[in-house]
C-alpha cells in the first residue's frame, strides 16, 4: 500500500487506538509518557508517533485546527487500520461552574461546522461511543481530576461570532445562527472547540469508535474586554500542568479501552 497523501503513513504504521491532538508540537510530548515510541511521519500539520503505553498499542496524530483538516486525518488513519479515536485538545466553556484546568468529556457535539455536514445531513447526531466516554470518565477519576460530561460546540471559526451583543457582526450572526453565548449556556453546553463534531460523525458513519476530552483554558463568556472584542489571552491559563493532565487522561483512556477489549475478546 502506498503512503497516504497527507499523513505519509501506510498500513502497519498506526495502532488501532489513536489520540488526536491539534497541535503537532504536542504529539512528541504525548509520546513521552509511553513505554515505547517511534516517529512514523511528519508532514504539514500532521505528526504521527506509534508505540505502546502500559501494554496498549497506541498512536498519536496531530490534526491541525478545525474539522476540515481533522477529517483528512481521520480518513487516512482509518484506511491504515485505526478503529478507535480520542480527541485530546483544549477548549473554552460557557458554564460558570466549570473552572480552568477541569477536563471536559464529550458525549456529543453541537455541529456548528461545515465538514461534518458534507458526510452526513444536519439532523444526523454527532455522538461519542459509550465505551470511549466511559473509559475517559474512568481515566479522569483515576487521575483525581475534575471532569464534566456533556455536549461540546464544534465551530469552524475561532475569532468570528465572539463579539459582545450590539456589534454589527454579532447582530449579523444572531440573525443567521440564532444562538448567542447565553443560549449555549442555557443549553448546558460544556465546551467550545473546533474538531469533535466531525470526529464523532465520521466514526459513527464508518462503524468505528470515537470520543473526546479537552482541558478547559477559559470561559468564553468572560473573555471579551470593554471593547467587546474577543481576546484569547484574557483569562486563559496556558498551563503546562493542565496540558500534562490532558495528555495523561488520553493515554489512560486508551489503556482502559485496550484492556477492556482484550477481556471481552477472551470471554
Assign the CATH architecture.
3-Layer(aba) Sandwich
How confident is the prediction overall: mean pLDDT? 90
How many strands, which pairing sense, and closed or not: the largest β-sheet? 10 strands, mixed
Name the poorly predicted regions: 163-170, 172-178
- The H-and-E topology, N to C, reads as EHEEEHEEHEHEHHEHEH
End-to-end Cα distance, whole Å, is 34 Å
What is the CATH top level name?
Alpha Beta
CATH superfamily: Nucleoside phosphorylase domain
Total number of β-strand segments? Answer: 10
Helix content: 25-40%
Taking all Cα atoms into account, the compactness measure Rg is 18 Å
Predict the CATH topology.
Rossmann fold
β-sheet strand percentage: 25-35%
Shape: globular
